[in-house]
Specification:
Length: about 210
Amino acid sequence: MFVKHKMTTNPFTVTADRSIPDALSVMNEHGVRHLPVVDGRRVVGVISRNDIAAASPSKATTLSAQEATYLLAKLTVAKVMSRPPVVVSPDALLEEAAVMLRDRKIEMLPVVEGDELNGVITESDILDAFIDLLGFRDQGTRLTIEAKDEPGVLSRLTAITADHQANIQHVAVHRGFLDKSVVVVGLNTPNTEAIEEDLSSAGMRILARRVNRI
């Protein structure tokens, strides 16, 4: 899956010459925590609520609330934003974006093609993609199976599901400890009793079952 399939297009933005209260107003109005800072369609930085909080007068200050508000209003986005911006291509794999977010400890990446802003990808977008890939909300049955970590196991598993005319909609494998792996399989049927029996006979252990009937 690619970034362009999960990014938010036409994101809300702010320019570097706007005041901090202006940026906060955009965030509050649209319920976002981060804004790309743009010059035309070119991304020049990113501003977040955390950036603004770090630049705001401390609660321990002797300034009055009115004085603190005045000082914050004098700050521009350019003074507070993070730069240079960390960006990602719309053709990057979603996993690449996830690694960038995790390694850099950030929550949003502007998606840039050439010099132009195409959208943004956030931690929430990555989580939604994870849920979709595992088929957690899809109709049917999700089986969590413990199997030997050896060649041919997935082939045997798919052969068993095919014998019962069940279609595999999703599959994920987690390499476990020693010689075991955990396989998550999403099937298009709520009736998996016979499949489970055959899987058990083939040496695979059913760890969990989730049935979605809606």
